[in-house]
Amino acid sequence: MSKGKAKEPTLGEEIKALEDIVRRLETDGTDLDEALRLFEEGVTRLRRARERLGEAEQSVKLVLESADGTLRTEDADL
Amino acid sequence: MTLSLPFGPEPGAGGPSDEVWSVAELNAAAKAVVDDGFAPMWVRGEVTGFRVYQSGHWYFDLKDDAARVRCTMWKFAAQRCPERPLDGAEVFVFGKPAVWEEKGEFSFCVQRLLLTNRVGQQAQELERIKAALARDGLFDAARKRSLPAFPGTIAVVTSPDGAALRDIVRVARQRWPAVRLLLVPTRVQGADAGAEVTRALQLVNELDCDCCIVGRGGGSKEDLAVFNDEAVCRALARVRVPTISAVGHETDVSLADFVADVRAATPSMAAQLAVPDRMEVAAVVGSLAERLSGGLSRHTRFVGERLARTADRMEAAMGEALSSHRYTLERMAAQLDALSPLRVLERGFAIPVTGEGAVLRGRAAFRAGQRFGLRLADGVVPARVEEEEA
């Protein structure tokens, strides 16, 4: 996944974590403190997932190779 | 236009009418029959009498042992042909039969021309590459990687001017507006295409991306040939992110399709495979949100019930404790009551008191003739001390 912007979980990771949280919330063994903690974490992840879903700036960049072999990108005109 | 002939129809034969056609009518009818009667087809033969006109059109005859046919190849088709056939060359031509009405000539209108020796060489070369790639495991199912579910950035290796790019951008934008596309531009046909696509695929490894689409829109077999190029296929296998090939239309299959992790039938399909649909993902997130709150209220309900049960038990326990205390209290109250001085008086005792109500305790408090009161349960009786005893 996108390196560099470390720690920021991807939408896929958020959804996977959410599924895990929901599964644990749905089992009987979890005590209330744990359930509350899971719920809180779930709400945070849910909010972030929805933010991700709402992101809408698609960009198309053109990758250009300079004579010295370095790469640069510029906005593609499409 | 029909003239009556002085002759009747041929006897028998059920046959020819006595209509008379003009030459133009005959040729027009023949042209219509030929135009409608043939789908485009491949014909194999030997070129003879090849000549190029000023207009750029090519004319030649195609012959085999038994027959020959005139061929025309219009300029736009001739230009796409990489080399001119020499007389005597064996060729495959693709086209349709035609009738030139004015001259009543039957000919074959050629759209594509391939030299058979070239075809043979190309086929052999393709087989060689295929065998080499297979030997090196590039087609192995085991090395196929699955595509990331939510790619943030996708590298696209294709022509910046092609229909493929437009299709990919359109579909990706529609399904997953947040995705970033990095276009690595390259020519996808012509002599240098192989080297350019190879270089572009190498550049993908220097980009921060989650998967890679490589391909082009539809075209002739020669147009798509770069995706059978050995260097291109090997560079594709070395791309470090999962790859999707999208070469031409549904029916076009190239070696790159077998090397890529996923083959898409078209560039649009590639975009569809590469990014999820936002609506579908939103539905998944929505259902997770419901399950999340459902999961919690399940626990709070459970805990609420436990709390209620505990409260009931506390109340019951408290009740028990209280009633035992009440008993003790009652007993103590009874004892207190029994000890009360009033009770004592009720039992017939009396308390000597002064006129002021102070209790007179012991003999020393009494003198002969002293007046005092005797306090009884129902009041005070006046009294006096008699002569002192000796």
What does this structure look like?
The complex is a heterodimer of chains A (78) and B (390). Chain A has one domain. Helices cover 49% and strands 15% of the residues of chain A. Chain A is built from 2 helices and 2 strands. In chain A, helix 1 runs antiparallel to helix 2. The longest helix of chain A has 23 residues. Chain A starts with 10 loop residues before the first helix and ends with a strand. The N terminus of chain A is likely disordered. With 390 residues, chain B is an alpha/beta fold. Helix content of chain B is 39%, strand content 22%. In chain B, helix 5 runs parallel beside helix 6. Strand 1 of chain A pairs parallel with strand 7 of chain B, so a sheet runs across the interface.
**Anisotropy-based shape of chain A:** elongated
Approximately what portion of the residues of chain B adopt beta-strand conformation? 15-25%
- Spatial arrangement of strands, main beta sheet of chain B: 1-2-3-5-4
Number of domains of chain B: 4
Strand content of chain A: 15-25%
Largest sheet of chain B: 5 strands, mixed, barrel
Q: Largest interface, and how many residues on either side?
A: A-B, 43 and 46 residues
Helix residue percentage of chain B: 25-40%
How many strands appear in the DSSP assignment of chain B?
Answer: 13
Features:
heterodimer; A: 78 residues; alpha+beta; two-stranded antiparallel sheet; 2 strands; elongated; disordered N terminus; B: 390 residues; alpha/beta; OB fold (Dihydrolipoamide Acetyltransferase, E2P); Rossmann fold; 4 domains; 5-stranded mixed β-barrel; 10 helices
In short:
The complex is a heterodimer of chains A (78) and B (390). With 78 residues, chain A is an alpha+beta fold.
SSE inventory with pairings:
The complex is a heterodimer of chains A (78) and B (390).
Chain A: H1 11-25, H2 32-54, E1 59-65, E2 71-75
Antiparallel strand pairs in A: 1-2
Helix pairs in contact in A: 1-2
Chain B: H1 23-37, E1 41-52, E2 58-63, E3 68-73, H2 75-79, E4 90-100, E5 105-115, H3 116-135, E6 153-158, H4 163-175, E7 180-185, H5 193-204, E8 211-216, H6 230-237, E9 243-247, H7 255-259, E10 262-264, H8 267-274, H9 278-339, H10 341-346, E11 351-353, E12 371-376, E13 379-384
Helix pairs in contact in B: 4-8, 5-6
